[in-house]
Amino acid sequence: MSVALDRRLAETGTRFRIFPQPRFLTKADGSPLFPEPETVTVAPSPGAVERGPADDRMFVVDAIGKLPYNQFFRPPYSGAARDAVEPGPDGHFDHLDPASREFSAATMYATVRRVLDIWEDYFGRTIQWHFESDFARLELIPLIEWNNAQSGYGFLEFGFGRTPTGTIDHSRPFCENFDVLSHELGHSLIFAEVGIPASPADEGIDYGGMHESAGDLVAIVASLHFHSVVDMLLENTKGNLLTINGLDRVGELSDSRQIRIAFNALRMSDVNDEPHDRSMPLTGAIFDTMVEFFQQDLVNKKLITDDLRNRSTNLPGTAHDLDQIQTDFAAAYAGNEAAFKESLLLARDYLGRLLATTWSDISPDFLTYHGILRAILDADRTLTGGANAAIIRSCFAWREIAPVPASMLMRQHTLTSCGLDTAASAAAGPADGFSAMIPTPRSSYQNLRR
Ligand SMILES: [Zn+2]
């Protein structure tokens, strides 16, 4: 899916340059983790991305002296604004100086547009905005004087990070933070595709956790579209992406919020009802599903042995030597870097399609993590005929995602509670246990006629 999308867009889309991770993330020696912006191509063709940047789905307004939107102050913004950012003579925006304000404004557009392109490709259709009854396009406000950022009905509005004393840190514009922007767009995507609980009696505890998890997964899958991120992840881990105890292997990437969340080891018994906290086991279960898919593909292509895959999948606390596992991965990775990357991109695109299919299917009403698990199994049946059911079950089981003990799904039905024992035994006479459960054809027919 996405690999094909990128091949297509390279011919037809409009180029921008954006940083895969915030520029303030550094290596151990103090140099930037990602010193250069990476070229990305958004779907609208040169010319269809107008000055702003703007297109038919979204537009940037670099507002002057604007206060944050609130309950009484909503889009569209009609106050003073700086000049719109102009494309280069070829219609692309990859000419902008990374030190300029225009670069920041263009980054906000390119990031949101890129993440939308990626997810529309996984959904296989246009994602219509949840605010479409009021606004045709999403309003993007990149750099207001505020030590915060927010997404709301019809807009994304971003300020700056905070210094230790709480003042505005102008070196950390949120609009250049790919994690933050794509997480916020993830919320919009869930509002658009899943919707919101209808009943006031619905506490929405798992719904809230699912929303935060979706924001992070939208961001994680999108960031795995940067070659520099994928290359660094594989180079650091040698393909040993098992998330439990995995953070020490991702090296300097562990300063990225997204990576810390993807590589979390929390289970349901570790978290409370607060949405961000509760999101962690779900995100972990889903990310692990991608990792297991990746390792299965490595086995299928004879890039690692089944034995190594089994040893790495077994959890800490078992007898396996984690250092030996890492040594074996390093040996397998050496000389096969391109093939490992191809497998990881395949796994990424499987996860993207799996999530899009799941989110298209689930109802927001009285949503439970167990319901999401069943929707994911169903999505896998749709996509692969159920080839990954065992992987999905084990990843979710480890996170302790299961029917709640009081669930009606756990209720047992006896012949007595079904009202079958007296009628069946009278009709069938002496019989074994199994046939006693089946009403005779005659009694079924009578039931129908009543
Ligand atoms: Zn969020």
Question: Please, could you describe this protein's structure?
Answer:
- There is one protein chain.
- With 450 residues, the chain is an alpha/beta fold.
- It folds into three domains: 1-193, Elastase, domain 1; 200-410, no CATH class; 412-450, no CATH class.
- 45% of the residues lie in helices and 8% in strands.
- The chain is built from 15 helices and eight strands.
- It has helices at residues 2-12, 101-123, 178-193, 205-223, 227-237, 257-262, 275-300, 306-313, 322-333, 337-361, 369-384, 389-398, 421-428, 433-436, 441-449; strands at 14-18, 38-42, 58-60, 138-141, 149-152, 155-158, 160-162, 168-173.
- The strands form three sheets. A four-stranded mixed β-sheet has the order 3-4-6-5, covered by helices on one side. Strands 1-2 form a two-stranded antiparallel ribbon. The protein has a two-stranded antiparallel sheet with strand order 7-8.
- Helix 2 (101-123) links the parallel strand 3 (58-60) and strand 4.
- The longest helix has 26 residues, at 275-300.
- The chain is globular.
- The structure holds zinc ion.
- The site of zinc ion has 4 residues, from helix 3 and helix 4.
- Residues 183, 187, 212, 215 line the site of zinc ion.
